[in-house]
Amino acid sequence: xxxxxxxxxxxDDKEVEVPLGATALQAAELAGAEIPRFCYHERLSIxxxxxxxLVEVEKAPKPVASCAFPVMDGMKIxxxxxxxxxxxxxxxxxxLINHPLDCPICDQGGECxxxxxxxxxxxxxxxxxxxxxxxxDKYFGPLIKPIMTRCIQCTxxxxxxxxxxxxxxxxxxxxGEAMEITNYVEKAISTELSGNLIDICPVGALTSRPYAFMxxxxxxxxxxxxxxxxxxxxxxxxxxxxxxxxxxxPRVHEDVNEEWMADRGRFSFDAVKHRRLDRPWVKRDxxxxxxxxxxxxxxxxxxxxxxxxxxxxxxxxxxxDAESIVALKDLMAGLGSRNLDCREDGAALDGxxxxxxxxxxxxxxxxxxxxxxxxxxxxxxxxxxxxxxxRKRAMSRVPVGLIGPEVNLTYPAKHLGNGPDxxxxxxxxxxxxxxxxxxxxLILLGRGALARPDGAAVLAAAWALAQSLNAVTAEWNxxxxxxxxxxxVAALDLGFLPAQGGKDIGAMLGGGVDALWLLxxxxxxxxxxxxxxxxxxxxxxxxxxxxxxxVILPGSSYLEKDGTYVSTEGRVQRGRRAVFPPGEARxxxxxxxxxxxxxxxxxxxxxxxAIRARLAAVxxxxxxADEAAQPAVVSASPAGDAGAVGTAPFAQAITNYxxxxxxxxxxxxxxxxxxxxxxxxxxxxx
Length: 686
Fold this sequence. Notes:
This protein is of the alpha/beta class. Among the domains are: 6-95, Ubiquitin-like (UB roll) (Roll); 221-354 and 506-629, Rossmann fold; 358-482, Dimethylsulfoxide Reductase, domain 2, CATH 3.40.228. Helices cover 25% and strands 17% of the residues. The chain contains 20 helices and 26 strands. The strands form seven sheets. Strands 14-13-24-23-22-15-16 form a seven-stranded mixed beta sheet, sandwiched between helices. The relative contact order is 0.12. Residues 220-276 form the 4Fe-4S Mo/W bis-MGD-type domain. It catalyses: a quinone + NADH + 5 H(+)(in) = a quinol + NAD(+) + 4 H(+)(out). This is NADH-quinone oxidoreductase. InterPro entries: 2Fe-2S_ferredoxin-like_sf, 2Fe-2S_ferredoxin-type, Mopterin_OxRdtase, Mopterin_OxRdtase_4Fe-4S_dom, NADH_UbQ_OxRdtase_75kDa_su_CS, NADH_UbQ_OxRdtase_ferredoxin, NADH_UbQ_OxRdtase_Gsu, NADH_UbQ_OxRdtase_Gsu_4Fe4S-bd. Residues 5-83 form the 2Fe-2S ferredoxin-type domain.
């Protein structure tokens, strides 16, 4: 900030200092003045076409649009005067000429910028007698409900689609009264960030199709939480009425998601009502039958008692909260088991140091990178919000290279090859020169590059590349692992990996254990589990893991419990319960605490505070909420021979963005999106 030149301007007789190049609207906000606006958005380019933000500037012949008017040293701005008020009333009158009077049936009612400003600047009568125009509604896909008669042509949606989402599919046709915002070709908008169009629309032209006619905002109970369906750690607000979740909205967090949110986390909440496990089940005579909680826990105790610890194993899934992970780890330790794993996809993650599995530069650190290399990842579907950050950087002429399947990332990326051969020779080409000259190179490694037989070698090779570029230092650590689900980093932080002499997931599934406890583990292939293995499945949906279980324990989804999650950048965040789980389902750590009573060693915590104290005792990072605490730079390298990488091309970790886990697979909305998008060339893997 020391290089930024500051100038002094006066806003309503109050002198403020603003950066040279700031607009009158920004100066007014720094002075505490409220300026109405419709087209202006601080994260989009300036359009200046609604004219609602008119202000007076000394010596100017007429009011000016403050959003597009750069200030100069000594300028005097007046934000509230008879001239300004009359100008804004005139603009409002023009905006309402053709706007339909359908507030009572508009889903934006109570949250509408136009409605709010009309209270302040709208007239009590209309001077117009002509018929209002009407516009044919467009088709924007299964998530957005457009009613374009309400559109005021602010072009926020056009600018968001083009600048942030990177899909220039919206624009304007016609002139004057005949102007319309359209997608030109009637098809679904091909972006994983489409729900943000609803948030930025200042009127009711773009509303949520799943939320249509469900509730008014003042009827909703609002709870702050965190999205775990990808590993970004997006801050969210969950709106519910009674036992029903009606919508999920993003919260502003500049260092994580800014104010954006991915579609899967926003729209899949209907899964809390579908395919739920709401009571225990026990397999008797080869068939799962309903049971009570005591019967289910006694069936587990009868099978596990007497088994040696090395014949018992546990696997946790990607959506598990840290409380349940540490409870399961403690339970396994009490049973004498070292057979633990959290890598359902078989990725060769090294948990010996946090730097080997975190997004070390942090998400906000993307804004400082001056060269980006993506290895075996498609961040567009694995973490759409992070991809939008990379796109913002790429649009600033920062070069991006891609090793892996050639996909449309929404920004220019130099495709360097499909597999490890390109990784080995990356420094020999033109892009290697770019990386060597970069001061802050960013290496982004995806799970798809590690979920293969030579995954450990790929990890070691990527780490060696980062070190050769001097990208792993105390000032800048550019080695970044991009995970795909919100519970994966917490499991690594808690050491839920095979201990010395323990079996990994492959050995456990292949008959290495007689009893296997699956905590929300639905991404493994149940056909790989040995037929004689006794399987305990604990989860919230009747998905793949439940289909193979001998005992089913109904747990809670992330929206139905207080839980701790760690994002891909290592940020510890807390989710809060929005609604109660259905039927007899319970919080997962409480289920494990109850099971420990019958298994001979009760876990030493009875409430949420005690188990969170246990989390902090296992790993101190859990005592620091909302911090992306970076690990110290280490001289060691991940286990693996960097020279042993194979030749097979990298595969994508996610091929169907809308159905990646047990939660999203149970959502009817996501199923409709999959039918709409998965075979669309712009959205599918290329």
